[in-house]
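User: Before I run my own analysis I want an independent prediction to cross-check against. Here's the chain; please return only the structure tokens and, at the end, one sentence I can use as a sanity check.
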Amino acid sequence: MGIEGVPTYSKSGNMDIISTPPGFVSQTSFVLRNVRRDKESTRSVSTQEQTTGFGTDGEDSCNMFLTNRPWIVHGHTIPSSEALRPRKTEGRRRRPLKVSETEVLEEAPVFNPTEEEFSDTLSYISSLRDRAEPYGICCVVPPPSWKPPCLLKEKKIWEASTFFPQVQLFGSHTENPKIKKEADADSDDAAPEEVQFCRIERGPGYTLETFKVFADSYKKRHFSTKDEVMGSENSSTSLKPEELTVAVIEKEYRQLVESPLVEIGVLYGNDLDTTTFGSGFPLSAPSESCKYPSGWNLNSTAKLPGSLLSLEDCESICVPRLSVGMCLSSQFWKSEKERLYSLCYLHVGGAPKVWYSVAGCHRSKFTAAMKSLIPEMSGEQPKKSYDPVMIMSAYQLSMEGIPVTRCVQNPGQYVIIFPGAYYSAFDCGFNCLEKANFAPLDWLPHGDIAVQLNQEKSKKSLISYDKLLLSAAREAVKCLKEYALSKKNTACYTRWNDSCGMDGLFSNIVKSRIKQEKNRREFLSNSLESQRMDKSYDSVSKRECCVCLGDLYLSAVKCSCSADRYSCLSHMRKLCACPCDRKSFLYRYTIDELNLLVEALEGKKLSSMFRWAGIDQKYCTAPATTSSQPEEGKGKETDEVTPCNITRKDVAAGTKEQTRVKARSMADILNVKDGNNDAKETLKSCSKKSNRPCENDSSEVNNTPKKQKQ
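Assistant: Structure tokens:
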């Protein structure tokens, strides 16, 4: 049997009818005084603290504390229902944006190469890196002789190719609960400066011809009448087309982004695939005597000899993309996938494009500012195509202390976006922009960071970083070995010689990656049964971790309970609930074999190059041999083996016949041993049909136990 106590109190202050809660002995009452908060006087605050025991910051807590206390006399103060209503505590509030009409952005550098400098694309871009990368973006004005034809104006593309642009609605309010607009914590009456959003919708189909007609008509109508669209007092009346400068349009765009008065909509054709829609550059074969197969032709930029993407077959990255814009259409803040380089060309016959960039060295400041302004969002493009997108003025970011660079790109000019940079842009009228990605050797550190971030976010990578790294190492060892034999200074050797060696950039990157892989295997794979990957492992598509979506080119973990399910070493416990004795560790190369690759890149021993070539050819999954069942007369290797009878003396002399022998056949022909380089015995010729090394070389080429050859 329990006792139920119902607390009652009287507003008149009668203490006889007040019931004391169980456990409280004292029935002493006290009266709360109504103290008004005066912002100009600090004395009232101290009085309130003495009366209630709470400061001004704890006013909500004080009201909640007093609500359920019946022994308090409320004769002098009658709290309202709104004041006593429980309030949900907010973790973080949005900060108000700082706006300044006099803010000036730093201009990006503009370069004018000569004919000779312009002839080598990647070498010239590499020469600009130290000067331009701190800005995140730069502009390149081609020589006067560079006038490629714009194939977009051909009838089959201009009138027939259809695309569906996105409708960008500025000044629209969104109903997404994750991005509700909140009141400013420091303002009681006035509304704060709020972060704006742009709603994205799917638009109707257009061709380039009909889109240009609509874009020109919209631009003329937008600036023709004062206050017709934007309601701006600064708008000019009946501006002529020649009076619409970049500064005038940028001022209109800035007001549209920072403080829109009405809702307007523009169209933007973004990220069009040039393989289906059409490219503005000619698809010329390299054999033709034409200057447009140059690296500045975006159809060949990704596959240039100095670009690592030439070793990767990924259409989503290697194929150029086309963007079609109109006046005030925007490219919202984003960063290139996998932190790749980006080369953008604005085709002739269009309006300028204005870019804003935050360099990769200030990337952390940018993301921190975006999260502080909007805690619920990260500032990047949403996952869904038509989710509301946050728009942020570059001048507002500059007021937040983030260095922002401005760049104006005119038709016929190139813009280079460096790895890790965030960028946005808007169009001054109808134009067509074509963009291609590429990855020179100095991109590798950025690619490594991108892979790690993708794994932390469980985000799928578009390219296999380890496969790209090992493919580049294979080509580097091949060039170094051919030079060691022939002493012929080729362009390939010149490119790799500067980055290889004991302290070379590429050698250190490979060495660091192998060290990381070694540490993982030592600590995570000791309890698993080891097994080398077969050629059918990733013959169809690359393997990814089922947990973090990380690339599994070098190593993986699988279980007998599922045939096509793999994980990385870090998430092998999340692969399945089976015990460890049912799981096995898969590897492509042993750590000793990878250390042999490092020796070959450092150029310590010529024998290391030959031994690595044999190991790599034996265990590497080549595109031509994707089947796991070898056949007698099927699947000839790309590098042909030529039977021959030579001595080691001929190898040391570097005969012409030896220079024609490929990297794979060297390990089969030569029986190279450390300390016996002066031997002159004649070697046996190898068979074309056999992929295995000669019997005399088996102990040196295969640096693995026999039980692993099953």
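Sanity check: The first strand starts at residue 106 and ends at 107.
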